[in-house]
Design a protein that fits this description.
This protein has 292 residues and is an alpha/beta fold. It has eleven helices and 13 strands.
Length: 292
C-alpha cells in the first residue's frame, strides 16, 4: 500500500531558541531563505506524500498559514513583475494538501502522533520530525517507503552514533537482514551510559502501520513523564515485524542552536548563488581569526 499521509509534530514550545521563539514558531525559523518546516515538507512531497497533518498547539497557526494561498501577496508580486518569487510562493501553497490537529497538552512525541489518529485513519503513514534535516540524493523518507513497500511493516530511520552519545537517543537492538537493513527486536529510549544494546539510534523519520495507534493509546508515561513513541515501537516489535534502515544522507539535528547553525552553513554552501561568496567569507574570517 502506498504511503500518502505524513504527520509532522510541531507543538513544542521551542524553549532552546528563546527569546526568538517567544513570537515565532521554531519550525518557521529561517534556514537561509526557507523555514525549517519547508525543508521537511518538500522531502515528504518528493517521497510521494500528498497529505500533511501538522500536530500543533496554541500560537502555531502561522505554520499552516505558510502553506496557505495568499491572494493579496500573489496579486502584489504579480503587479510588481516579480515572476520568480511569485512562482515559488505559488508552489509552496499548492504543492501539498495540509491540515492540522491540536495537541492541547505537551505529553510527548507518542501522544502527538496519537493526536493525529482520526486524521490518518486506517492506513500506513509517515512521521517526520521538523528538527531532523536529511540532505540526500534520494529523500530519506523515500528510502524508508521503499523498505515499507517490500515488507508491508513499520520501518524507522537509523543512524550510527558514537557510544558515548547513545544516552541521548532511542536505541535499537536487532539483527541485520540486508545491506543497511535490520529486523528490530527491541527499542530502548535514552539508555543510561554503558547500557545501550547497540549504537544504532532512531532519528526523526518513520513509516508506521495504523496498529501503532492502539499501542500508543494504552501506554503509560515513560521517560521524562511523557508518552514515548519509542516505547510504543518496542511493544509493537514484540508482536509484529518492525524494520530499521541506516539511511543514505547527511543528517543535521537542528533542534538546538549549534545544530541549527551547522545546518544553516551546510545549506548556504549548497546554494548556487550564495555558496561561493559565503565560502570565501568563511575562509577569510578563519584566516583573520587564525592570525590573531
Amino acid at each position: 500500500m502506498k504511503v500518502r499521509k505524513a504527520v509532522i509534530p510541531a507543538a513544542g514550545l521551542g524553549t532552546r531558541f528563546l527569546p526568538a521563539t517567544k513570537a515565532i514558531p521554531k519550525e518557521l525559523m529561517t534556514l537561509v531563505d526557507r523555514p525549517l518546516i519547508s525543508e521537511v515538507v518538500t522531502e515528504a512531497v518528493k517521497s510521494g506524500i500528498s497529505d500533511i497533518i501538522f500536530v500543533t498547539a496554541r500560537g502555531k497557526a502561522a505554520i499552516e498559514d505558510y502553506f496557505d494561498i495568499d491572494a493579496a501577496l500573489e496579486s502584489h508580486l504579480e503587479g510588481k513583475g516579480s515572476e520568480g518569487v511569485l512562482r515559488e510562493i505559488r508552489h509552496i501553497s499548492r504543492m501539498v494538501q495540509v491540515s492540522s490537529v491540536r495537541q492541547k497538552e505537551p505529553r510527548g512525541l507518542g501522544h502527538a502522533v496519537l493526536c493525529a489518529m482520526n486524521a490518518v485513519g486506517a492506513e500506513p503513514f509517515a512521521v517526520i520530525l521538523p528538527d531532523d534535516l536529511v540532505d540526500s540524493p534520494i529523500p530519506c523518507l523515500a528510502q524508508l517507503a521503499e523498505v515499507f513497500g517490500n515488507t508491508g511493516k513499520s520501518v524507522v530511520a537509523l543512524q550510527e552514533v558514537p557510544p558515548e552519545e547513545t544516552h541521548r537517543y532511542g536505541i535499537i537492538e536487532g539483527v541485520q537482514t540486508g545491506p543497511n537493513t535490520f529486523r528490530i527486536s527491541r527499542f530502548v529510549e535514552k539508555p543510561p551510559p554503558g547500557t545501550a544494546p547497540s549504537n544504532l539510534a532512531v532519528i526523526g523519520r518513520y513509516v508506521l502501520v495504523p496498529e501503532i495507534f492502539p499501542v500508543l493509546a494504552g501506554l503509560e508515561p515513560g521517560s521524562g513523564g511523557e508518552i514515548q513513541l519509542t516505547d510504543a515501537l518496542d511493544r509493537l516489535a514484540a508482536r509484529d515485524e518492525v524494520h530499521g534502515l541506516v539511511f543514505d544522507g547527511i543528517r543535521h539535528d537542528a533542534g538546538d542552536k549549534l545544530g541549527f547553525l551547522k545546518a544553516t552553513v551546510h545549506y548556504a554552501l549548497k546554494d548556487e548563488s550564495l555558496g561561493p561568496p559565503f565560502m570565501r567569507y568563511l575562509l577569510d574570517t578563519l584566516a583573520v581569526r587564525g592570525g590573531r
